[in-house]
Write a structure and sequence with these properties.
This protein is 30% helix and 28% strand. By secondary structure, it is of the alpha+beta class.
Length: 292
């Protein structure tokens, strides 16, 4: 098992409650984690290949007070849960791409399966899009949280996680199998997305998000999305001032990350807007699903 400082980890996420491995403790740990550790993919645009092993992620998230992607943060969280006595298994999910009406070919999103109280629970504290914060039973039980319903249904050998907002329509989040997938699998995903020879869009993409009490805030390049009470609102970020406001909301409490995000936005988006044809105004509308 990875050698991490448990007390330092718990202090990083602001958790000082019970540690007995119960469902209530698990829910509290999930909430503490998402409120304290943002999802961010800033390493890719900065030309950095992140370590995804628990010790490396601990150094980044706890010691250096940063965030991380799913294969970093969920892997670290799995280590914490294991140290506390939970039965936890990393899995690999294929995210739903709304704009393509299809799932990704690669199972590139790490989720966790926790076996507790004679049931299997899906746990995910590190995803760009809106997902449930609290564990979800994978038996079709519907859970309600912050204006959305969440559900995991079995389809053959796979399980599909979905959400339903104010529109009343179920939208897929991702699908996964129960085959354990560890660091070796996700090492290949890191290479797939960050190896310069593969021409991945990730190094050219600014992406960061944070869970809020009402839902989630997400910045993807020049698109800012806020999920509140079952509805998602979006707007375009077209000025450095608007970028700063968005970044300060998403990366609240992480000033060094915020400065990095602003610099990345200026390099990827701001400099291009300076030479773009004028007249493209900011747009905003409500929508029920994120379209990246």
């Amino acid at each position: 098992m990875a050698d991490i400082d448990l007390n330092a980890y718990l202090a990083r996420i602001g958790y000082d409650g019970p540690l007995t491995p119960t469902s209530e403790t698990l829910r509290s740990l999930c909430w503490a984690h998402v409120r304290s550790v943002p999802f961010e993919l800033l390493d890719g645009p900065d030309g950095i290949t992140p370590a995804i092993d628990p010790e490396g992620v601990f150094e980044k998230v706890v010691r250096r007070h940063q965030g991380g992607a799913c294969m970093e943060v969920n892997n670290l969280f799995a280590t914490l849960l294991s140290r506390l006595g939970y039965d936890v298994t990393p899995l690999a999910a294929r995210p739903w791409l709304p704009q393509e009406r299809a799932y990704t070919e690669s199972a590139d999103h790490m989720v966790l399966l926790v076996r507790l109280d004679d049931a299997d629970w899906l746990v995910d504290v590190a995803y760009s899009q809106l997902t449930a914060v609290e564990p979800i039973r994978i038996d079709g039980t519907v859970s309600h949280e912050r204006g959305w319903d969440f559900q995991v249904l079995r389809e053959g050998a796979e399980f599909v996680a979905s959400r339903r907002g104010a529109s009343g329509r179920w939208t897929p989040i991702h699908r996964f199998t129960l085959e354990p997938r560890g660091e070796q699998h996700f090492d290949t995903i890191v290479d797939l997305y960050l190896n310069p020879a593969r021409d991945s869009p990730i190094p050219r993409t600014l992406m960061c998000s944070r869970v809020t009490a009402e839902g989630k805030v997400l910045l993807v390049n020049d698109l800012f999305i806020e999920a509140v009470s079952g509805v998602e609102h979006s707007s375009r970020i077209e000025t450095p001032e608007a970028c700063r406001r968005a970044v300060d909301r998403v990366l609240a409490g992480h000033p060094q990350l915020a400065e990095r995000a602003v610099r990345i936005w200026q390099r990827l988006i701001g400099d291009r807007l300076l030479t773009a044809t004028p007249g493209a105004g900011t747009t905003a509308h409500n929508r029920e699903e994120i379209r990246q």
